Every structure is written in structure tokens, then in C-alpha cells.
Amino acid sequence: MIDYNPKAWFTFIFRFHKGDTVRKLSPMFLGLSIYSAAVAYIEMDFFKLKADSELKNIVIVHTLLGFVISMLLVFRTNTAYDRWWEGRKHWGALVNNSRNLAIKLSAMLPANTTSREYFRLMVPNYAFALKNHLRMNFIGGELETVPGFTVDTTKHVPNQIAAHILAHIHELYRQQQISGEQLLSVNHELQAFTDICGACERIRNTPIPFSYSVFIKKFIFFYVMTLPLGYVFTVGYLIIPVVVFVFYVLASLELIAEEIEDPFGFDANDLPTDTISANIRKHVAEIL
Amino acid sequence: MIDYNPKAWFTFIFRFHKGDTVRKLSPMFLGLSIYSAAVAYIEMDFFKLKADSELKNIVIVHTLLGFVISMLLVFRTNTAYDRWWEGRKHWGALVNNSRNLAIKLSAMLPANTTSREYFRLMVPNYAFALKNHLRMNFIGGELETVPGFTVDTTKHVPNQIAAHILAHIHELYRQQQISGEQLLSVNHELQAFTDICGACERIRNTPIPFSYSVFIKKFIFFYVMTLPLGYVFTVGYLIIPVVVFVFYVLASLELIAEEIEDPFGFDANDLPTDTISANIRKHVAEIL
Amino acid sequence: MIDYNPKAWFTFIFRFHKGDTVRKLSPMFLGLSIYSAAVAYIEMDFFKLKADSELKNIVIVHTLLGFVISMLLVFRTNTAYDRWWEGRKHWGALVNNSRNLAIKLSAMLPANTTSREYFRLMVPNYAFALKNHLRMNFIGGELETVPGFTVDTTKHVPNQIAAHILAHIHELYRQQQISGEQLLSVNHELQAFTDICGACERIRNTPIPFSYSVFIKKFIFFYVMTLPLGYVFTVGYLIIPVVVFVFYVLASLELIAEEIEDPFGFDANDLPTDTISANIRKHVAEIL
Amino acid sequence: MIDYNPKAWFTFIFRFHKGDTVRKLSPMFLGLSIYSAAVAYIEMDFFKLKADSELKNIVIVHTLLGFVISMLLVFRTNTAYDRWWEGRKHWGALVNNSRNLAIKLSAMLPANTTSREYFRLMVPNYAFALKNHLRMNFIGGELETVPGFTVDTTKHVPNQIAAHILAHIHELYRQQQISGEQLLSVNHELQAFTDICGACERIRNTPIPFSYSVFIKKFIFFYVMTLPLGYVFTVGYLIIPVVVFVFYVLASLELIAEEIEDPFGFDANDLPTDTISANIRKHVAEIL
Amino acid sequence: MIDYNPKAWFTFIFRFHKGDTVRKLSPMFLGLSIYSAAVAYIEMDFFKLKADSELKNIVIVHTLLGFVISMLLVFRTNTAYDRWWEGRKHWGALVNNSRNLAIKLSAMLPANTTSREYFRLMVPNYAFALKNHLRMNFIGGELETVPGFTVDTTKHVPNQIAAHILAHIHELYRQQQISGEQLLSVNHELQAFTDICGACERIRNTPIPFSYSVFIKKFIFFYVMTLPLGYVFTVGYLIIPVVVFVFYVLASLELIAEEIEDPFGFDANDLPTDTISANIRKHVAEIL
């Protein structure tokens, strides 16, 4: 995620940051300029169509449907943003649960036991394992070595860590180091890890339905490609910047939505899961 | 569900996938083309109505109501998408609860007991039974055979599996193999199965209110059928692609909404419940 | 609730079902036609106002406010639909809680006890009592006779059933037929009954604020009544179908919203609470 | 809250109820009529500006921004309605929790004990105290006298009642009249009282951010005041009803939103907290 | 947060409060006036372009995209408001949990113990520590001195307070001053502190995705800067107030959104966390 000051207007307007849609779309801008110029030339200079041509009135399509395309793009924007924000909430919940688990275990376990040490290392491991799991890779070096725990990378890694933590807690309970009520009082945090993992997997694996994705792209394409046909008669060669600007606006919304709807990767707008994981490790170490 | 790369724009625009609304609507496109051509012929060439005909101004209806129809379609899209996404969330919760139950039972039960074996087979059976139940069928072969459990297919199958699992847990509790606090700590997961089943049944059995469904279809029909009456005067025979394109946009939104509002079937955009069920079986087996 | 196939377009468009707004509004259509014809006659034939009359430009009101009225109707549609869907969710939760309670009690209680029999009869009684309570009536014949339970119809009926079930459970607990942890494990289901009842009462008793209801109706009325004043000059006697169609669209949305915002009655779009109650009885009997 | 039949259209349209925005805004209507007439006179009759004056085209502002103002008013409407509905939900939850607490205590406590009497009086007191607390007053006469409980009106009254009820419950637990599990089973209801109180205080104390409130009012003011400047040229003295009607629509939405965003007072649309409190007392008395 | 009477219309319209966007934007108003005047002079007086210039029709861009920009600003407004309101909800929950914890502990602990004293001082400390933590500073003087507790300002301060409170509770449990069920009954409140802290940190640290922030600013800039190019032909030098007003509206929405999306600072619209913290201290002292 790019860290930024949302109040620095002029920086935003004139610089073209990594992740700026202007950069990504510029080849398309060139193509569309050529296309629009060609349409303008053919209609005005080659066929010398007059301004009362019926083709001029084709613009009614853009008037009638301009509203629908806007609504669709806002629907797209809302759903993509909701996923991004839901992903952020789940990582926030991971922070909260890691902290709460550390705070509770710290209150339950005597100082300087091996179990304290175990949880200090193992709880933050979950965040790192989940972060990498969501990016479909495994970085062993990011996990703290914990005695008695080995990862089988062919299996679901976060599940193994969660299962190991839970087995440790129940072992403490069987040894009566923690009571039944204390076991119940950490139940919420323990099951939250797996719930968060499942929710993030759901967000990553489920883009908006295929039909919408196709439909929006087709709609933008036909809308923009037919734009010069009618408007050439009213704006002449000015159609070139008009088409480019309209395309810039519509395509940008679709592009940004595509980028943020899976928020766990390495895109410019993705969530800072590396930083969050490191913070969990830091705060858990402070507490336990 | 179709797995796709949402960033492959050009593939989307020019190919006509299974489930693409262009394929489904193409017979209607033909019909509408003929109708529009007929209207254009009758008004312009047969009656030779002049451009100052009052019929030309009928287009005010489309201007005044174009906004309402767009809003309605977005309402339709939002509610259908919400069901689809809610269904996805419930199946995600099924994954989470199956995993959490396996993780907790793994921590409670000694290695190599028949109960571990029982839960390893029985918990994933719930997902398969639910998947088929939501499609109104029963596939015995997808359920693992579990000693002591027989299905009565004339009754509600998921309920039988949930009841059998719960009875097994309470039996372990009566035999003091798990304690009262341990019983409480799996209570959430156990009741979640039936809650998820009920929520999915609710989504499947309750389309949007009949009146909205009728009203939207009538509205689209009259909107599109009256479109050529007035616009013929401004665009001539170009009315044919205009009507077809407007109809394509409006009808596509309704069609996609119809398809995704019951997300548990076999439609192109439906949820991958087969894959999810298989994953539950795989992950539970890894843990227990 | 009308059961229907949402994909049967042509049936929808040409048939006029019970609950179709066309049927309900047809007297108004007639009235508006006469009114519009009168306005057209007076302006065009009686006073022979010319097309450059200032009255013609009164249509700016409809342009400026057409958007506001659409937004308001969508707000109305959304809130009404949300109540309908929230009501459906509560009845879904009633199904889930009845099933879960039956599944849990089945696991706790020995076979063939009078308590099993008691819960098999009493739990579904709650759904039937609630259904009738929400319709402000009481149908004694729909409740199964349960030994030791008599209804006082002058008091809140669902509360009596819930209190009786809870008293039975606590009696079992005092007799140590169920343990403290088992008591806690059904706590959620037991309190859910009364929560659902209260939520449904809230939906039934609270229509949208009076001011909105009045405002929307006044707005639609003035919007439609002033429509012919200006548009007569552009469409002549075609104003009659135009006004009728615009009114049909605006009033339909308000009418449907009125119907579904209290979803527990006997309207065509109301929830199938009879069927749901019968299903609860059937499934609870299968389990217990 | 005004109780009304949402289907009585004609009553709504022609009567001007208490709380109707037409009544509240009528002085403004007069002022705006004079203003518009003055603008019309000055532009048309005094300066005799011609219809091709550049001032005529100032209407582009209203076209460009008409959409923004509508969106803003819908945003305003949605947030105000959400508070009103959230307030209603909290009072519904108060009903549910009072009933559930009564039902559970009824099952736990033997008949005819002083504790039953205590809770029968004290639980409904909370609703009455909260109702008055939210209106910033205290009506001692509405609280039932409970032996051993005196209110200190200089302190937070609902908190005192909640604390007294909780102290009573824990006292019963210390005397072993209720068990630990029974204590836990009423924990949710007991903490819900204070959660509901805090949520209602939040709604009452937090109107939408000051900047939005100011901005919307300024925007409506400038939008309406500049309306006659340009439109006088097209509609002449008909500008007077046009401006009044546009103002009526825009200001009504803001007025209604202001009224319902704090739903606990005595405004026409406020929630019927008196009735709800009385119902809680009635139903709790039926149960306990 | 500015405390205000939302019904005082005229005060709002004519005064320019601190935080009013008119004040913040006035330098930009001047710049835009000069720019618009320059464009008008160049087009009309220098080049003497005629009204049938193709440049005039460039306004189609503003018509086609006016809708998209409005939708985007409403999306922006909604998400910013949602954060502000979510932040307010979390602080409301902090109030509720502090009160509930005090009420429960008051019922559990005997009068005049050091533990009561401890919680009376320590629970409100959390609110003050969180308030300052969210503003990235630490004000030791606002924390009550509690025997046995020292803050390490290099570490996460709220976490230390939460951990200290939890350790104290578990110590009471080990000493059997509170029972296991009583420990469980305060579990929710204890973990809520850290959940609230994490949620507020999430809101503060996560503005809307960078790409949207950039895109909206670029879009407003180009939209406003191109506005005079075409509209000069229709409104002449009146373009100056038109451009300023359109910019005022669009930029105000973005400015207010920027201000409220991080609601924990010292901006005019930020939440009154100082007051809320003081209230928590007052109410907890009343109860314990």
C-alpha cells in the first residue's frame, strides 16, 4: 500500500505515480487517438457527411446509456472497495486477536515458563504464514523456529500452526495449568485465526461473477468505440481528446476495481500485510 | 463458477463464453431488429411521417424514465449480487467451521481413536450432503461410509448428519472423554452447520418479490418496444443497432441477476460448491 | 408468497397476475387519461395556446426534479425490500434455531422420554403461534396439545410458549437430567425465539417515517398532474399514454414498497410463514 | 410517532398533517414567491433583457449540479433514516432483552419470592428511565417504587438501575439461589441494557458532521436563489410556482432528515418510546 | 467536533465557521476566477471565436461525465462518513464496555476493597490512553496514578493498560475472590478494549486506496479546468461565478471527506474523544 498524505492535492494532480492509471492506460490512449482521428477523417473529409446526417444522432445511445454505465461502474467500485475494506478488517481482527490472546495468556501463565516463550514465537508466526499463504508462496525464513513444531509445506500451513497452538492450550488444560473457564475465555481468539484465514481465502478466490466482469468490459468497449461516430459532427477533431478523456475515466474505474478486489498481493494499492505481520510480532513480544 | 483472469480485457471483449449474455439474447436481437426495421419502414416510408410529427416527441418518456429504469436495474443487480456473495460467505463459514471443529477435536481426542476416524469422515460429509441438498438431489457415492450411520433419503439429509455428529459429541461427554468446557468450546461450530444450511435454503427458496420481478420485465419490455417509435425520426434505419444495443444492456443486467440470485446450482456463475466440498474433505483429513 | 420461475419472461410481460400493479392501478389510469385529454383539449383546442407559450417550458420542473423523484423511489424501494428480507432472515433463523434446539436436545435426552415428546410438540408450536401473532389473530387448532400447557389468549401467546419451554429446560437442569454445560449450550437457541419475535413485531409495527410516506405521495401526485401542462405542446394527444405510463412506473414502485414493507400478512408478496411453520414441525419431528 | 395507514393515498395528498413539511415551509414559500416575482419583473420588465441574454444560460449550473444536489439529499436521507432505524432496533432489542430476562428469571426463581417481585418492578423501570434520560429529563413518578432502591438524580439514572439489577443477581448467585451456569445464561441480557443505553446516547449526541450540515444548507440556498435568474427567460412569471416547488422538494428532504436523525424526542416522526416502555412493563408483568 | 443546532438554517448559510470549506477554498476561488476570465477573454475577445465553433461543443464531455463525477463524490462521501461513524461506534462501545465492566465488578467485589479503587482508576485510564495513542502522542498527566502500574512510553500504551487490568482480574480469580463463571462473565468487556483499539488504529491508518484518492482529484481538476472552454460561448463572462460555484461544490465534498475519514484528530469535525473519555471517568466513578 502506498502511504500518502490525502491533502496534498497538487502533487496528486501532476505526478504520475506507480499505480496511476494514466501510466497503465497510455498505450490505449494512443490507439484511441488514432482511431478517433481516423473516424473523424473518414466521416468529415472522406465521405463529407453533413451535420444533418442520421449518423449524428447516434449519440442518443450515449445519452440513454450513459447513466447505466455510470451506475455499473459505481456498483463495480463499491463491491471492489468492500472486498478491500473487508480484507483490511480481517487483518485488523488478526491484530486484535493476536494481542488479546497474548494479553490473556500473559495473565494466565506464570512468568518465564516455556509456554510463554512458545506463544510469543508461535502466535505471530500465524500472521506471517497467512500473509504468504494468501500470496500462494511459503517463506520459511519468516517463521520463528519453535521447538517441537515442523511445517509440512505440502499441506495448508496456517492450519498447521493453528492446530499446534490449540493442541498446546488443551495440553495445558489437561495438565491443569489453566482452568476450564480460562480455556473457554480464549476460545474466541483461537477460533478467530482460522475464521480470518478462511475469510481472506474467500476474498482472494472469488472475484465478482464472471458475467459482470465480461459485461462491464464489453459495455465500456462499445460505448467508447461508438462515441466518435456521432460526436464528430459536433466537435470535429476535438473528438480525439474527448474520447481519450471519457475512456480514461471509465477504464480507470474498472482498472482500480480490478486491482483492489484482491487486496493481498503486491499491487500498489494492496494491503500492507507485511507491516501488519511485523507489528503483530512486535506487540506480542512486548506483552508476553 | 468460471475461473478467469479479470485483467485479460481483450479476451473478454471479443470472445463469447458460455454464459455470455450475447449468446443467450441473440434470438431476441434478431426479433428486435426485424421489429425496429418494420417500425422504421412504416413510419418513414409507408406513412411518410414528417420530422415534426408529434410521435417524434414521444421520446420524452425515455428521457424521463431512463433514470428510473437504470436505478431499478442497479437495485436488481445489488440484491442479486448480495445473495450470491452471502451464499459465498456461508460456504466460507462452512469451510471455517469444518476446519475449526477438526482442529479443536484434534486437540481434545487422543491419537488413533475411532472417534477421530469418525469425525474425519463425518464432518466433510456434511458439506457434500449440503451441496447436493441445495441442488435438490442426493448422491450417496459422495458420502464416506461411516460405521453406525445410515442415511434416510426421505428425510432432510444434512440434518441427519448434524444430529449424528452432535449425538457422538454428547456421547463422548457422557463418557467423560471430553469435559464440559470442551463441549462448550465446540458448541459454536456444531450449531453453525445447521445455521449455514438454513441460510442457504433461504437464499435458494426466496427470489426477489414477485412484483419486482414482473415489474422490471414489463418495464424493460415497454421501454424497448417504444424506443423506435420516436427515435426513428432522428436516426432513421440506424434505429436497428440502437434498439438492439439498448436492449442488450438492459436485458443483460436482468439476465445476470436472475442467474446469480440462486448461486447453488450449475449455472456458469454459480458458486464452486463441488470444489469447496472437496477442499473441506482434504483439509479435515490433513488435520485429524 | 407467489412461487414463480424468474426466467419465464413472456409469461410475466403479458399476463396480469394477482398482485400485479397494473390491475390495482387501472382505475387511476382511466382517471389520468381523462384528465390528460382534458388538459390537451383546453390548452390546444380551446385556448389554442401556441408552442412558444411559456407554459410549454414548465417542463423544466420535471427535468430538474425527475432525478430527485427517482432517487426517492429507490430509497423507498431499498428500505421496503430491506424489511422484507430482514423478516425473511428472522424466519430463516427461526427454522435454524428450532432445528438446532431439536438436534441438541435429541443428543442430550434419552430415547422415549416424555421430555422428548414435549419438545417435539412444543418447539414447532412457537412458529405457529408467532405466525398468527404477527397477523393479530390466534388459531388454537394449529397448536399441538401439550400436557401441562394451556394458552391464555389475552396475553402475549409466543411469550407464554417460550417461557414454558425455558421452564421445562431449567426443570430438567434442576433434576440433573441435563448438566450445566448442556444448559449453556442451548442458551443461544432459547433466547433466539424471543429475539426473533421482537424483531418481527418491530418490522410489522414500524412503517417508514410518516413524513416520508406523505412526502413521496405528494411528490408523485404533483409531478404527474403537472406533466401534461407542458408536454402537451410537444406530443399533443399522445400525452395520454405518456402520462399513464409515467404514473404506472412511479406509482408501481410506491405500491410494491407499501405491500412488502410489512411482510407477515396475506398480500401476494408476503413471506410464506405458513409453509415455513409447517416445515419446522416436519423437520423437528424427523429429528426428535 | 404518527400511526398511519400507508395505503390511504388521497388522505395523504390533500391533508396537511402536523409534521407535514408544507406547513413548516409555507412562510418560506411566500418569501420565495416575492423574490422570484421581483427577479422576473427586474429582468423582463425593468431591464427588458432579451431571451438571447447570456444570463439565460446561467441555467447550466443547475443542470450540471442538479445531480450532485440530489445525490447529497439522498445521502442525507439515508444517514438520517439509518439512525432512526438503528434507534428503533435498539428499542426493539430492549424489548427482547427485558422479555428474555423475565422468561429466564421466571424459570430460575421459585414462585412468590421477593426476588421475582423485585425483577417484575425493576426491569421495566430501566426502559422508563432510559426513555426520559434520552429526553434529558427525569420523571420519578414513572418508576415503580422498589424496596432498597433509591435514585440519585444527579447521577446517570439508567446506570444506577442496571447496577442495582446486576448486584441483585450476583447476590442471588452468592446465596446459591442461582447456579454459575444460570448466572452465565443471563449475562447477555444484563450487559445488553447498558449497551443499548450507550448506543441511543450515541445516536442522540452525534448529528451528521457539521461540515455536511452547513454545506447542504448553503448548497440548497444558492441553488434555489439562482434558479429564477436564468429560467425567467423561458417560463416568465411561471417561475414563481417552479421555484416554490423545487424549494419544497429540496428543503423537505433536509427538514425530514433533521427531524428523524434524533428519534428519541417529541417530534411527529420520533419513535414511540412511551408506548414501548409501557409494553415492556405489561409483558414483563405477564411473565414474572 | 462542533456542537450545533442542525435546525438553525440562516446561521449556517451566512456565517463562515471554522472548518467551513468556503474559507479553505477561497484562494482557489480567486485563482479560478482569473483563469476563467482569461479563457473568456482569449476565446471571445482575442480570437473572437464564433458561437458555432467546435470548441463550444466540448461541453459534451461535461454532460457525459457529470454523472460519473457525482457518483464518485458520493462514493467518496459514503466511505468517509462510514469511517467517521464506525469510529464513533467504537468509542460508543468503549463507553458501554467501561460502564458494563464497572457495573459487573461493582456487583462482584465487596465494598471498599483496593481492587474497586484499582478498577475505578484504571478502567478510565484506557480511554485516555487510547485517545492520545490515536493522536500519536502521550499525555502522562491525563492518566490517574495507580499503585503498581508504570507506563513504558516506548511500547504500545493501551496494550499495557489492558494487560494490567486482565492480569489483575486473573489474580483475583486465582485468589478465588471471583469465581470461574464471574471471570467468564467479564470476558467480553475485557477483550473489547483491545478490539476497539485495533479497530480505531485501522481506521486511522487506512485512508481510501491511493488510486481512488489520486483519480478523484485529477478528475475534479480536469473537469473544472475544461469547463470554461466550451461554456464561455453560452454564458460569456458569467463563466467566472459558474466555474467557481461548480468547483466549490465538487471540491467541498472531497475536502470534507478528507477531513472526516480520520476522525480521531483535532479537525473541526473530528469526534469529541476528549469529552467521551472524561464522561467514562465520571460514570465509572459513579458506579464503582
TrEMBL record, chains A, B, C, D, E:
Keyword Transferase: no
A GO cellular-component term linked to this record: plasma membrane
Transmembrane segments: 25-43, 55-75, 220-250
Keyword set includes Zinc: no
UniProt protein name: Bestrophin
UniProt similarity note: Belongs to the anion channel-forming bestrophin (TC 1.A.46) family.
Keywords of this entry: Cell membrane, Ion transport, Membrane, Transmembrane, Transmembrane helix, Transport
Recorded topology in the membrane: Multi-pass membrane protein
Localization per Swiss-Prot or TrEMBL: Cell membrane
MF-aspect GO terms: chloride channel activity
First-listed, main subcellular location of the protein, grouped into a coarse class: membrane
Organism from which the protein derives: Chitinophaga oryziterrae
